Amino acid sequence: MHGKFIWYELMTTDTKAAEAFYKSVVGWSARDAGMPGMDYTLFSKGEHQVAGLMTMPDGALEMKVPPAWLGYVAVDDVDATADKLAAAGGTVHRPPDDIPGVGRFAIVTDPHGAAFALFKGDGEPPPAMDQMAAGNVGWHELMAGDLDTAFDFYSKLFGWTKDQAMDMGEMGVYQIFAFNSQPIGGMMTKPKEIPAPYWLYYFNVEALDAAIDRAKSGGAKIIQEPMEVPGGAWIVQATDPQGAIFALVAPKR
């Protein structure tokens, strides 16, 4: 499991509005997690839990941290991996801590500032969804501070390997990376107009245009128009009504 994305979490300013939005756009169901002392919503597709939803922590807006999706990567040992990350130039923003009955986690950033989380669950993991199943996260994309150093950092931390590399002309190289020989995402040096590096998550939907219509009617703003990608899938990038960046991917328009 070490190096596999296993959970996704939206921290936002209006959880009720966000819940209604993603239920409509992605087709998730939602329920309260029943965690003592905090409101935490679980998004599911069928029997599979996919993501969580919570209100942004106190002080985040004052620090100009916008609503955002956070990806959790499974590791064999949270403390050891956090130490290794820090030694490689990353930053541990929330030191390893336990979620009773769930697992241990840490909130971190890579050397260029892209945020993600480390996680080791208690007990056996639930059965995995197919990567491209509707409602799952089909692709993980890093707008990196620098592709070469970022890939070196993540490959040493998680064992990710290089798959295909696509020359994007003036935009540089788009490097697909794999976990256990399965392509799970891509990374590239971010364009200059993007102020900071970040991870972007692509939610699988059955047909893109219908999902875009649902997103727009729910208050989303399209930031990159629909485009076809190698392999024949279609993608779109957008911000939700609270301002969190997300993306959709579908096998057809």
From TrEMBL:
<dbReference type="InterPro" id="IPR004360">
    <property type="entry name" value="Glyas_Fos-R_dOase_dom"/>
</dbReference>
<protein>
    <submittedName>
        <fullName>Glyoxylase</fullName>
    </submittedName>
</protein>
<dbReference type="InterPro" id="IPR037523">
    <property type="entry name" value="VOC_core"/>
</dbReference>
<dbReference type="InterPro" id="IPR029068">
    <property type="entry name" value="Glyas_Bleomycin-R_OHBP_Dase"/>
</dbReference>
<dbReference type="Pfam" id="PF00903">
    <property type="entry name" value="Glyoxalase"/>
</dbReference>
<feature type="domain" description="VOC">
    <location>
        <begin position="4"/>
        <end position="121"/>
    </location>
</feature>
<feature type="domain" description="VOC">
    <location>
        <begin position="136"/>
        <end position="251"/>
    </location>
</feature>
<dbReference type="InterPro" id="IPR052164">
    <property type="entry name" value="Anthracycline_SecMetBiosynth"/>
</dbReference>
